[in-house]
């Protein structure tokens, strides 16, 4: 237990007992000692020099450093996270159905720890009076069956819970942690690997470095940090391989997990929390992951993780463990004390049986018994007290009072030793010790856009599918509405074409929904630790979308404009292209916004399709604006389809000299359409004389403007419609920003 | 190893070493010995009596039975599955990209076992000369890392591969197994639990019993079998609980897995194959599952399963194991011989280390080394030979030649002993020994429909969402098109309403896609072992859908018909309701068919939305039939929306006495619409005199039939349209049937 915080490269006990393992390790992890140490040493020098320049004050840090390095004191641990009497409870609605009340299974749930009861809710205690300490250099494992409170405890320690619902204290070196400081010096590794599938391991880590390492660090220093990390994670052989997904072959599951950990520890955090980092991995991969965690701990970090059934070899890497059962501590101490503990409790662990497996089964057994785990909880308390009083030096309880450094001193010492702690300066107050974001907005924007581009460029099939959809629909519309004539029927068909074409642009945008939803999880993880501003993300998301939207608009407008025979020549085409581009922009903004508020792909898609259908219904095509009932007219004005639809109508029919009904065509949409041409001419003459004006068979009786009048498209000019469509796009992007602000609070209540 | 096939209820060695475990087991598995034995004994008597009546021949079976029970011969195993020299290879496309050729990672893949190489493909050997034997009463475990060929071997033994690609022989009691016989006497338990979420455990097993147990067995006998199975599986406490899913709380993961196994072994199969039955379960649940498998084996079945990292206690339940590495056997024998084997190989297993974990790591280590696992494969061969020659009685190699029963005798003996083997009769030829399906079509239909109804009735929210969607759209349409007038504008709006309303019915059907897709997996599993005919499934699927479609149609037609002011009174409403019902029927058939051919929900939804949009485009609403270009007219006729759209148009406008344009309204859709009324009347008088007929301001100038003429809706009567819509529904159901026939071949190539 007397571990010094410098890199500990002596072989671990587990490796000794498994002789054949050495070779593989040596192969996979080559260069850790050689590459990692000089890099960190280098950075240490740089940061040290910087500090000297800025403040001139380096004594306390170096004193601490030298004390440890020369004196070799057994208690020279700079960081200790301690937590005491953590209690956390939630209110759950009481199930009121009669059948469940009388069912046998409820006997088990009735023994749950419940305190505050009302008629409709009952309080469930998820953590009950948990205390402990975790020093740096060590791995602390939280264990227990599912539902025992493992993840809850990790969340509580990582400050991922609303403060008011958690009782008890958590402190680092005796000082309570402020949320902003904790965000910078800690990392939380989630169970899911949320990585961009088409970036290589090296690129993934490099982007993480650009987000989280201070701007003062040069690009080459950041590269060195990434290379050192690749060696530390044992990822040298996979560095140039893409992460991969279902459709693309990439790195293995264990490598992916280590990349995930790597992106979170790029800034060399002091506190590292992991939620079941080995779940879903085979035993060798799991061992490699925990081995990496040990190395991280030994570089001066506190590592706290939850783990389910560690193998024998992984157990050898753990320094401390806390066993939970329904929110109570049933054991806390080192894994090696487990056999003694259980034999004292009267249930000796049989030879050859895995200790943790035995413990989990015994706990489960007790949970099912009438008395519950009460006896074990009580036994643990008395055992801990007994052990502490018998051997005061074997535990770190009195650690802080004897050799403790203040938090500020410890962080300074840590920076001097090579810990990066992004952008740290040696300011007086601990809150301004570190800035909230590592980079200014424009750098974030550049890095985010660069990453998005790299990722999408390597998945051309996604854009290909959207382009294909646009081209197929364009082709069908072009051949269906091929060279429309200028008769009244042709005018009617033009209206149909415009309504269908404008809806298509919006529907095509819905195809991007899954991509946005997938990316949102990465966004949430990254903004949770302030990797970048939410506004940068929204901006870069918009910027990156534009080129492909431009291309789609061009493809669609070029396919349809001349084929259908639309009016206006090249300037008409230009406006047609612009309004389609604006529609794509507004549509993709709308879908992006929905991806920010809808939790699930299918639900999102159903909602998009339904809302777009209503937009079309209220656009003015099915019912003209002047015929819409007054209680629905508001929906007409918020219909996104209205504006591009009216814009293309005006673009088509704005020419006052173009004729759509000429001479006897005046009877086309009337009951007289069926009478012979000669009679129609006679009727036309009659009309001429009645009206007192000369109407011949070539006289124009309906121009484009008349049609606009008929369709009620009079309230806005075509340029107004264009601007309003573009404005809708911006409006939804802003809503997207707010949805991210509100939606990415990842704290429990 | 000298295990007798009768129920073995003595405590296993693993249980002895874990004293506290006894209590829990006694609790959870209460009644196994008490309830299961009498039930099976009862059935034994029934089947025995039946056999006596039918054939009069019972001597060989009972001789075998008595020989075993009284003589206690060490080799009285009735069933032995043996497989020898199994080799299976696939052609994989060779990766031609240059970067991968020069990358370091390829060193590992280059050592893959490859034989037949061409320039574009290379042959990958997934199984290489695997031999072994599995007697009943024992569990054989296939182990190895992922990709070692575990699942491939299980698939090969379970006859889930195309015969031509698999070399080697598989025989039961020395006779090659015919596929139809194997289907009846075996069961294959997949890794995924595919169960209806809203059925209870008991109901799930009861439905399985109704599908798979012979018709000759009475309902009460089936119930007894289910109750016995519930006890055997240790599911007594969960019997009345629903299975559950994400939205509904149900049984635990381990219980769910045991229910899955239960549905597959309801017919008490002789051969039971399981693909990683413990994956995803915690150690206690996993132990319970394997304990259940041991009990099944001891009731006279051969159990073969793949397993990844069994815990120490599970290892104690396994009788034989085969370790695979890249398709080669690296160890085969009992788990207890593993330490001896590896110390002979020069890598002794350290104390306390899990044997299988050690073995997996060593194999992985060797796979990464230059020589591969060749040394271990060779060592295993020589070790097996040595062991066999040294101790001929300890292995079952010479088993069949000494005490073997023929397959027919063994199956007869098994039936007498209480094995059910669905519908077994003691016929002369082994193929007709058992019928393909347990029940006639009409019983299957009743059971399937009953199950579907039970499941959907317990998820009213699914129907609620669809009803909500229909009612909301109905409400919006009703208020938007409130009391349309009979002017020319009103006629235009009516057309829009009909097009939108008819498309809505189709779009609403798309919401059911995920449910169908989910159910399809259950269907594929069940038809794989001939639980019922595919035709029964298609029929029951159609029948069960009808009531809810009826309700949706009624809701939609009642909401809109009078609100919009549609024509025809009660008979008009009745036809309107009928055609909407027919649309729902055709739409749901179309979506059902798509669910049979589309593998993924998102893809299916996108395709449905796109196709329905094209259906609408070609329905005749956007372009009248007589104006559609000739090269697209075929699409007009396959557009599902055309028929209901034309039907409602005819229903609305068929009345030749109803007037839509009267007097001066004749000018409404012309440029003259804007002139003052007095002038219009003057113009009308002029027209009257020119035409030589009296047209006053109340004269009807356009009737419904004129409008139908204008819209080109003349080729079919409204009843024709109704029948054609219904026929489309049947057509897609038939296509669905064929898609199931083609799509549910679950064999590897």
Automatic annotation (TrEMBL), chains A, B:
It is found in: Membrane. Residues 102-351 form the ABC transporter domain. GO terms for molecular function: ATP binding. The chain crosses the membrane at residues 463-484, 496-517, 538-561, 573-594, 601-623, 722-743. Keywords: ATP-binding, Membrane, Nucleotide-binding, Transmembrane, Transmembrane helix, Transport. Pfam families: ABC2_membrane, ABC2_membrane_7, ABC_tran. GO terms for cellular component: membrane. It comes from the Eukaryota. It is a multi-pass membrane protein. This is ABC transporter G family member 1. It comes from Abeliophyllum distichum.
């Amino acid at each position: 237990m007397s571990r010094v915080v410098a890199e500990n490269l002596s072989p671990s006990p587990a490796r000794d007992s498994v002789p054949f393992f050495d070779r593989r390790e040596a192969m996979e992890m080559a260069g850790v000692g050689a590459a990692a140490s000089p890099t960190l040493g280098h950075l240490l020098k740089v940061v040290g020099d910087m500090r000297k320049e800025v403040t001139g004050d380096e004594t306390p840090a170096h004193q601490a450093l030298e004390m440890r390095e020369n004196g070799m004191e057994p208690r020279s641990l700079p960081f200790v996270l301690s937590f005491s009497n953590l209690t956390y409870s939630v209110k759950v609605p009481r199930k009121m159905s009669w059948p469940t009340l009388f069912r046998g299974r409820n006997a088990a749930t009735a023994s749950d720890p419940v305190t505050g009861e009302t008629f409709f809710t009952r309080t469930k205690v998820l953590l009950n009076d948990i205390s402990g300490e975790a020093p740096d250099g060590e791995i602390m494992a939280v264990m227990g069956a599912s539902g025992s409170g493992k993840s809850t405890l990790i969340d509580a320690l990582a400050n991922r819970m609303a403060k008011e619902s958690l009782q008890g204290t958590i402190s680092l070196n005796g000082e309570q942690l402020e949320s902003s400081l904790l965000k910078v010096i800690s990392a939380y590794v989630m169970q899911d690997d949320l990585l961009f599938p088409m970036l290589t391991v090296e690129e993934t880590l490099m982007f993480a470095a650009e987000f989280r390492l201070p701007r003062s660090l040069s690009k080459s220093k950041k590269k060195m940090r990434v290379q050192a990390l690749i060696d530390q994670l044992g990822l040298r052989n996979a560095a140039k391989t893409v992460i991969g997904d279902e459709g693309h072959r990439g790195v293995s599951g264990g490598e992916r997990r280590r990349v995930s950990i790597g992106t979170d520890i790029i800034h060399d955090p002091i506190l590292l929390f992991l939620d079941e980092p080995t779940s879903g991995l085979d035993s060798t991969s799991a061992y490699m992951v925990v081995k990496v965690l040990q190395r991280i701990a030994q570089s001066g970090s506190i590592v706290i993780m939850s783990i389910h059934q560690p193998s024998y070899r992984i157990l050898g890497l753990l320094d401390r463990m806390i066993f939970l059962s329904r929110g109570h501590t049933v054991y806390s101490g080192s894994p090696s004390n487990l056999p003694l503990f259980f034999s004292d409790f009267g249930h000796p662990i049989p030879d050859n049986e895995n200790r943790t497996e035995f413990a989990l089964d015994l706990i489960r057994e007790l949970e099912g018994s009438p008395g519950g785990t009460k006896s074990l909880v009580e036994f643990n308390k008395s055992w801990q007290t007994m052990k502490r009083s018998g051997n005061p030096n074997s535990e770190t309880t009195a650690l802080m009072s004897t050799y403790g450094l203040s938090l500020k001193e410890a962080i300074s010492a840590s920076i001097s030793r090579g810990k990066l702690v992004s952008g740290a300066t040696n300011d007086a107050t601990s809150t301004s010790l570190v800035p909230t974001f590592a980079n200014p907005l424009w750098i974030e924007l550049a890095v985010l856009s660069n990453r998005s581009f790299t990722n999408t460029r390597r998945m051309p099939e996604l854009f290909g599918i959207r382009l294909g959809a646009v081209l197929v629909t364009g082709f069908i519309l072009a051949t269906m509405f091929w060279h429309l004539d200028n008769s009244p029927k042709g005018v009617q068909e033009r209206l149909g074409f415009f309504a269908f074409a404008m809806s298509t642009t919006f529907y095509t945008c819905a195809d991007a929904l899954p991509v946005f939803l997938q990316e949102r999880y990465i966004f949430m993880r990254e903004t949770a630790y302030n990797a970048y501003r939410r506004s940068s993300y929204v901006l870069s998301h918009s910027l990156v979308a534009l080129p492909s939207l431009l291309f789609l608009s061009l493809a669609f407008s070029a396919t349809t404009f001349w084929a259908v025979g639309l009016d206006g020549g090249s300037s008409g085409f230009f406006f047609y292209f612009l309004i389609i581009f604006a529609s794509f922009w507004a549509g993709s903004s709308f879908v992006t916004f929905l991806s920010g508020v809808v939790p699930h792909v299918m639900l999102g898609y159903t909602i998009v399709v339904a809302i777009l259908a209503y937009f079309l219904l209220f656009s003015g095509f099915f019912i003209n604006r002047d015929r819409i009932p007054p209680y629905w007219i508001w929906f007409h004005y918020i219909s996104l389809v209205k504006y591009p639809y009216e814009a293309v109508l005006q673009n088509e029919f704005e020419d006052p000299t173009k004729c759509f009904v000429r001479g006897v065509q005046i009877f086309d949409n009337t009951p007289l359409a069926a009478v012979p041409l000669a009679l129609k001419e006679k009727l036309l003459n009659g009309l001429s004389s009645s009206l007192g004006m000369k109407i011949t068979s070539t006289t124009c009786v309906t121009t484009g403007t008349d049609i606009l009048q008929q369709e009620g498209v009079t309230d806005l000019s075509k340029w107004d419609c264009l601007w309003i469509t573009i404005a809708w796009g911006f409006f939804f992007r802003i809503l997207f920003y707010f949805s991210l602000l509100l939606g990415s609070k990842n704290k429990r209540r």
